[in-house]
Specification:
Blueprint (H helix, E strand, L loop, with lengths): L1 H17 L9 E12 L4 E11 L8 E12 L4 E12 L11 E16 L2 E15 L4 E16 L4 E12 L4 E14 L4 E11 L4 E14 L6
Parallel strand pairs: 1-11
Antiparallel strand pairs: 1-2, 2-3, 3-4, 4-5, 5-6, 6-7, 7-8, 8-9, 9-10, 10-11
């Protein structure tokens, strides 16, 4: 437990100092997310997620809505490759003034590596994204790469600590795009459902945002129903 506690402190310390020069929002925003992972064969699973960001509480105009559905191939219990499609609606006026809603169609390829040490589960997620953005006057294709390091520490059979850091880079002209640092407490409802509540520090080049995060995570194995 001490290891997880120190890791949480280190994550928040670096986020606070690394982006201290940014002029971020003074209010808390909200990040709501539902994820689902469904095993359909020994090697294949279907994943889905829905995300709603509100950059202020109560919810104002700045937000992101994003739905993702994907197919994943499990090379082993520890190595997973996936391809997904996402549809999004983005209001970027928090970052760039007078920019209306942007529609996005996104194609995603990802590789996930898993391992564990005692009570700590680690994951590394590498993502490539092709983002087809529809602006009022033009359509733009942007390429992005992301890396997320995540750990989960079980306090007991029901409660766990979850934390991650994910950095994004644009690839059209290689450049930092954003970073997300999260720390939260999770509750395992049963073998299929858990809920995680926590804090996200969402940082861009010139601004950083504080968000309260609520995640509902679903995991099902539909192979059992076919036996």
């Amino acid at each position: 437990m001490k290891i997880a506690f120190y890791l949480l402190l280190i994550t928040l310390f670096f986020q606070t100092h690394l982006y201290a020069q940014n002029t971020g929002e003074n209010q808390f925003g909200a990040w709501y997310e539902i994820t689902s992972s469904n095993k359909i064969t020994k090697k294949l699973s279907i994943s889905a997620s829905f995300t709603n960001w509100d950059y202020e509480l109560p919810a104002d105009k700045e937000h992101l809505l994003l739905g993702i559905v994907g197919l994943n191939y499990h090379f082993s219990n520890n190595v997973i490759f996936g391809a997904s499609y996402a549809l999004g609606d983005i209001d970027s006026s928090f970052d760039v003034n007078n920019i209306p809603h942007t529609k996005e169609n996104r194609i995603i390829e990802q590789l996930i590596l898993l391992h564990n040490l005692d009570k700590i589960d680690f994951s590394h997620r590498f993502r490539l994204e092709q983002r087809f953005l529809e602006f009022p006057t033009e359509n733009v294709l942007k390429h992005r790469i992301r890396y997320r390091f995540k750990l989960k520490f079980s306090l007991n059979r029901t409660i766990f600590i979850s934390t991650y850091d994910e950095i994004h880079f644009n690839l059209n002209e290689f450049d930092f795009q954003q970073n997300r640092a999260f720390a939260g407490l999770g509750i395992k409802i049963n073998k299929n459902i858990n809920i995680v509540f926590g804090y996200v520090r969402h940082s861009f080049k010139t601004k950083s945002f504080n968000r309260l995060s609520l995640q509902l995570n679903l995991k099902f194995d539909f192979r059992a129903t076919n036996n």
